[in-house]
Write a structure and sequence with these properties.
Helices cover 42% and strands 12% of the residues. The strands form four sheets. Strands 1, 2, 3, 4, 5, 6, 7, 8 and 9 form a nine-stranded parallel sheet that branches. Helix 1 crosses helix 2 and helix 20 packs across helix 21. The protein is globular. The two termini are 40 Å apart.
């Protein structure tokens, strides 16, 4: 890829300095801040040359490390231990005030049980790192934080961080990476036995951004560059493998960026032991503007400047350093530039939790990241939170208390993560109560009982209360019996409130606070006719092209197509629709064809399931709607939907789609004749299908679950006599979130069935998504199911705002839509 031409702003003197700096870099000369500043001005052919040098340096470092052609990442869970902070950074949406916490029904600190709920789910998904991120010393600013710490027996937030880190490793075997902000030398030493690595972004050495009113770090005592540099130095003295880096685009100058990189290198080199410094990776992170911040109107970091910063970081730091770029903060098409710039690590990526610091930028799916990495000519390998060099020299860099836990997860030869097994609780781990006694503190509250003590209640004859059952469901959804799940599903009154709160906590600490929506339009494929008939709701292939082009021009990123073709129509019509959509709007994501539709193509077209799915893929289908089933019960199907595909055939079709690499939605239509036990059996079956898709490792599986009630004010038949329709929905959404947690990540609220007001309530019961806008469009709007109902993005954003939650537009598979400007076009066929 060729980048921008040289900027006319770069005069002859700058150009001369750049050429000289490029020559010094090519000769392997140690670069100073002036060299780095000159290199940061590179554009056009100079930038191409800079990228080539950075790539060569990176490749040499990987070869010397014994892992040529490898890009690493850490499989993690993100634990936002507290969102209170004493700083006031002008670009941050991570932090809350106590009043905001109250409105969100959110605690000042995550409890040990809430932490373990998230970490255990990550453990089940193969995570080995628990990233503890939090605000700096909130007790110094907020009395509410001080009161919580006092009530729970902790001297400080840092004290609680160490306690939670020990708990995580003892109970799950995962390794903590601590990111609590500024730490003193004594705190670093105290925390060292609790985590094999720690981190804190330098961000910048610019004192102007810290001292000048109105700048991004003004009023934030922990953003003093001198203080942060001292932390990096103290980490070296304490022999702590340390992660740091710079933030690009927050108002710093090119000289600031250059000086920041050189300052990190100098600190790293000051603490070298046997040729190894303590900075294990340098993150080069691009600024992304966020709503509700002072910098919301500032442009995101310029791509060329960002890529140049990555390349200069590589050349300043040298071949041996790991240079990390967060993959969720760049569009997938930009990752090739970042790799060309010398990056060799994607950092922590979670299969479970959101990026709580950047909630609008979801992590890439790990299968997609591996495929994209392979496309760039590299192999993706999992590492631990401590990089391989530090793992192999654990005697120097890792506290003896953690040697066993690290060795249990590491490949002995490479020092990377051992991926054949899952993180296990170490044999030597003690219960939480035993550890509490050794700390000499007052007895912990009831929530701090050991896990073994809590698990004893599982085998007792008496049924636990709804609140405790919901807490157990949140911690381990597979531990509850069907009867216990039914008790939750039929909760009322305060019990239902406790259930909804537990589900919402699970939602908050896994998929995050964002409420998402896709801009889409529906098209009912059963309306296709080979020739115009004038029959309402019908259309031709010419109309399909016009509909797709119109949807794209209106800003849609998805066209959802489903419905069986009439027996009178050639089944090749399924493929013809797909091709027409992609011809008219190649960038439009085609979410098309239920298992029943795919089966119809397979049988009438003589292709078989696998052949039909391959043909649909070739025709342009991207993902599959998992609809066309009410409840996974033949009894229910026979009573309410005998025309639906038989349950075993539906399962065969969705399984084949997942095996073929298609992602799909999943649904439950409730309020018919199904029992509470049948609803629970349905959810369990979806979870087992998701497990099978994960094991198949083909990239397929369910992206979301949609609990859909019968239409009408009553919302269908209630499981509990006299329970309101809203409470019926709250219970269904909450149980869905809890039972599917750690398996199907997103719970979508069907606003077309429940209304926008109820949708807001259900977003507080475990829901995180509002589905689609369902644009009618200007071309044959009646050809889409549920036409006449639209949810403009502005209305969805207003719902999220009333809940004090961020809003984001998403793609069909929950990625971030690429920025685009609809191009002028002549009317498509059928648009007149």
């Amino acid at each position: 890829m060729t980048l921008l031409e040289p900027s006319p702003a770069h005069g002859p003197a700058t150009r001369s300095a750049l050429v000289e700096a490029l020559a010094r870099a090519a000769a392997g000369v140690r670069l100073d801040a002036d060299d780095a500043a000159a290199l940061l001005t590179a554009t056009g052919p100079d930038l191409e040359a800079l990228l080539d040098l950075a790539s060569v340096a990176r490749d040499a470092g990987l070869e010397a490390a014994g892992r040529a052609g490898t890009i690493t990442y850490s499989r993690k869970v993100f634990v936002p231990l507290t969102t209170l902070c004493r700083d006031r950074c002008h670009y941050c949406v991570f932090v809350d005030t106590p009043s905001q916490l109250q409105k969100l029904h959110k605690p000042a600190f995550m409890s040990p049980e809430q932490v373990l709920t998230v970490v255990r789910q990550g453990q089940a998904l193969g995570c080995k790192e628990a990233l503890l991120t939090l605000g700096d010393r909130p007790e110094e600013r907020w009395p509410e934080a001080r009161a919580w710490l006092d009530e729970h027996g902790f001297a400080s937030t840092i004290d609680y961080v160490g306690h939670i880190a020990r708990l995580i490793t003892a109970e799950t075997g995962l390794l903590a990476h601590l990111n609590p902000g500024v730490m003193t030398a004594d705190e670093l030493r105290v925390l060292r036995p609790t985590a094999p690595s720690m981190g804190m972004m330098l961000e910048t050495t610019s004192r102007r951004l810290f001292e000048e009113p109105g700048q991004v770090h003004y009023g934030s005592p922990d953003k003093d560059p001198a203080v942060r540099l001292a932390v990096i130095d103290d980490a070296g003295s304490a022999r702590v493998p340390f992660t740091t880096g710079i933030l690009v685009g927050i108002g710093e100058t090119l000289s600031d960026r250059a000086e920041s990189l050189v300052a990190i290198r100098d600190a790293h080199e000051r603490h070298t032991v046997a040729g190894q410094g303590h900075v294990q990776e340098v993150i080069v992170q691009n600024f992304r503007a966020k709503p509700r911040t002072a910098m919301r109107g500032v442009a995101d970091a310029d791509l060329v400047e960002y890529v140049a910063a990555v390349a200069v970081a590589r050349l300043v730091m040298g071949p041996e350093m790991r240079i990390q770029v967060p993959p969720n903060l760049s569009d997938p098409t930009e990752l090739d530039l970042l790799v060309r710039a010398g990056a060799d690590d994607w950092g922590g990526v979670s299969p479970l939790t959101a990026d709580h610091v950047n909630p609008e930028r979801p992590w890439p799916h790990l299968d997609d990241l591996a495929a994209r990495t392979a496309d760039l000519g590299f192999v993706l390998r999992e590492r631990l939170t401590a990089h391989p060099e530090f793992v192999r020299d654990a005697g120097t860099w890792i506290d003896p208390a953690l040697h066993g836990a690290v060795a249990a997860l590491a490949d002995a030869e490479s020092g990377l993560a051992e991926t054949k097994g899952r993180a296990q609780r170490p044999e030597t781990s003690r219960s939480l109560s035993e550890r509490s006694e050794t700390k000499g503190r007052a007895q912990r509250p009831e929530t701090s009982r050991s896990l073994s003590e809590r698990s004893e209640t599982k085998g007792r004859a008496q049924r636990p209360g709804i609140a405790s059952g919901a807490a157990r469901a949140a911690s381990d959804p597979l531990a509850l019996s069907d009867d216990e799940w039914v008790a939750l599903l039929t909760a009322t009154g305060d019990d239902l409130g406790a259930l909804a709160a537990a589900a919402d906590d699970v939602r908050r600490y896994t998929v995050g606070e964002a409420v998402s929506l896709v801009v889409n339009r529906n098209l009912t494929s059963s309306g296709l006719r080979a020739h115009p008939t004038g029959e309402p709701g019908t259309y031709t292939l010419d109309d399909v092209e016009a509909i797709a082009a119109d949807a794209w021009d209106l800003g849609a990123t998805e066209l959802c197509v489903q419905g069986m073709l009439p027996a009178s129509e050639d089944p090749v019509g399924y493929l013809a629709i797909a091709r027409a959509v992609k011809t008219a709007a190649p960038g439009l994501h085609l979410h098309a064809y239920r298992p029943q539709d795919v089966t119809d193509l397979a049988e009438r077209g003589g292709l078989g399931l696998d052949g039909a799915l391959a043909a649909l893929r070739d025709a342009g289908v991207d993902t599959i709607p998992g609809t066309g089933v009410k409840v996974l019960s033949e009894r229910v199907r026979g009573l309410v939907a005998p025309g639906d595909l038989e349950i075993d055939r539906w399962i065969a079709a969705i399984t084949a789609a997942h095996r073929a690499g298609f992602r799909s939605t999943s649904v439950l239509f409730y309020g018919h004749v199904e029992t509470a036990h049948e609803r629970i059996a349905h959810l369990r079956r979806l979870r087992s299908l998701q497990d099978a898709a994960t094991i198949a490792a083909a990239g397929g599986g369910f992206t979301e679950f949609v609990p859909i009630p019968l239409p009408g004010a009553a919302g269908g038949v209630s499981l509990v006599a006299g329970r309101s329709a809203l409470d019926e929905h709250r219970a269904m959404v909450a149980v869905s979130r809890l039972l599917l947690s750690g398996s199907i990540p997103h719970v979508q609220i069907p606003w077309t069935r429940v209304g926008q007001g109820a949708a807001a309530e259900l977003l507080q019961s475990g829901g995180d998504d509002l589905g689609g806008t369902l644009l009618d469009g200007r071309v044959k709007p009646e050809a889409g199911i549920e036409h006449g109902l639209e949810l403009p993005a502005t209305d969805a954003a207003a719902i999220a705002a009333r809940l004090f939650r961020p809003f984001r537009l998403r793609t069909t598979d929950y990625g971030t839509p690429a920025a685009r400007t609809p191009a002028p076009r002549t009317p498509a066929r059928g648009a007149e």
